[in-house]
Amino acid sequence: MKKVVFKLLVRLNNQLLPKYAGKDPATLTKGQRAILGFRYWALIHSL
Known about the structure:
Blueprint: H1 2-16, H2 30-46
Helix pairs in contact: 1-2
């Protein structure tokens, strides 16, 4: 059940949140890093 919720969350992230692929994490703002970290966290828990 937990994996299903996280897989749904990853799908929503892909549709709603901006993507920062190809950008240097050191140049991102704190808000952008938080979004990147949340996307990573949700992806890891869905696998």
